[in-house]
Amino acid sequence: MTDPKKLFVKTYGCQMNVYDSERMAEALGAQGYVTTDVVEEADMVLLNTCHIREKASEKLYSDLGRLRGLKVAKPDLKVGVAGCVAQAEGEEILRRSPVVDLVVGPQAYHRLPEMVAAGGRQIDTDFPAEDKFTQLPARKALRGPAAFLTVQEGCDKFCAFCVVPYTRGTEVSRPVDRLLDEARGLVAQGVREITLLGQNVNAYHGAGSGGSWGLARLLRELAQIEGLERLRYTTSHPNDMEDDLIAAHGDLPQLMPYLHLPVQSGSDRILKAMNRKHSADQYLRLIERIRAARPDILLSSDFIVGFPGETDADFQATLDLIRAVGFGQAFSFKYSARPGTPAAEKPPVAAEIADARLQELQALITSQQRAAQVAMVGREVTVLYEKPGRLPGQMVGKSDHLHAVHVTDPEGRIGQLARVRVLSSSSNSLAAQMVSRLA
Ligand code: 5AD
Ligand code: SF4
Questions:
Q1: b/e sequence 392-426, b meaning 16+ C-beta within 10 Å
Q2: What confidence tens digit (pLDDT) does each residue in 72-94 have?
């Protein structure tokens, strides 16, 4: 018997890419590929790229440059470029980089095995009508008790800075039945927590019995699955937080008290220029309603500083919004002009100014994050053990509020839920002592 062919996958960017990489690896598994973490051993290298911010294509070409030597040593090595840079640059990648054999856009992954089998240099960046996931083999390779499930892809919002509507295409929701089947399959394999993924997940509107289902209805149905203890979803747009979804945060015990709800800016002028279609005040009132439904919810957001035209007053308005909300954590980025987006046409804010604003904003967020963690000290929280910790007798997992928790529990096993007492807070995690195991 010959050794199986080896596949090395490098994933850049978001959780959706992580999910897609797993599915591509499984699809190629059907062709005899097993994954490896050692690039030198690989018969095929797949770079699953991200185009959302700066230097994505520079990073790709420098990685491709580094693969040149390997390809000389192993002429049969296949190199594939997937993801949003593949979509955005297409043919250009084949032209610029002779090491590349395959270019495959995010909507064409189901064709990957075919493309590999056909041999030669190939490109597919089409947006087919069918659900790419139905063409891929059923999920099997599982890494732990917490899994992701892509329910929706693409975005119709066209925020002025963002490439997603161009690279991932317009919104497509997967049908309810397929998602329920996939979720049941995951639970049968030991999964106890599922995070529903989508670029605009709360705009979900999948075909279900009796018509189109929204995200709240999908969550309620998933909550019926025996053994599925925890549900989360990300990423959401404020304008799609419908009443029934807010209500679900109040009455669905499986829906965890954590919400990532990007606002990007606290200035109405900038929000308008960003084409966000909501004001700072509307966001604040929305947060009030969400907190009324689930008072202990931890909120997270994304911020962009240095958007074209952002003045000091605009930036102060963003800081004011952050102070008014009090976030449990947040991601913040310096604006980066993405070719082809409307904002890229406008004159940029000076780099030093944007850098200084980013630092100031991050310091504020860090202090809020610390405060949220410190508030947990002394409390009992529930943790799902995901892996052993670095110290002996330790398990690591996430709390309901998505804090990483290191728990002293020598008998703890992966996949168990435990009540633990939080003893201390460090920069990015909590330390705790096991109190009782739930199951
Ligand atoms: N520049 C900087 N940040 C961006 N994001 C999206 N596009 C850009 C851009 N051009 C950020 C937004 C989004 C997150 C995923 O990435 O904050 O919510
Ligand atoms: Fe991009 Fe999100 Fe805006 Fe859609 S809602 S365009 S994914 S930033």
A1: eebbbbbbbbbbebbbbbeebeebbbbebebeebe
A2: 999 999 999 999 999 988 999 99
CB of 306 closer than 6 A to ligand 1? Answer: no
Say whether the peptide bond before residue 235 is cis (omega within 30 degrees of 0). Answer: yes
Q: Is the CB of 157 under 6 A from ligand 2?
A: yes
Q: Which domains does the chain have, with CATH numbers?
A: 5-124 (3.40.50.12160), 144-256 (3.30.750.210), 380-437 (2.40.50.140)
Strands ordered across the beta sheet of 298-305: 258-260, 298-305, 329-334
C-alpha torsion sign, points 185, 191, 194, 198:
negative
pTM of the predicted model as reported, rounded to 2 decimal places: 0.90
Q: How far is the CA of 1 from the centre of ligand 2 (A)?
A: 49
Print the SS3 string covering 252-310: CCCECCEEECCCECCCHHHHHHCCCCCCHHHHHHHHHHHHHHCCCCEEEEEEEECCCCC
Radius of gyration of the chain (CA): 22
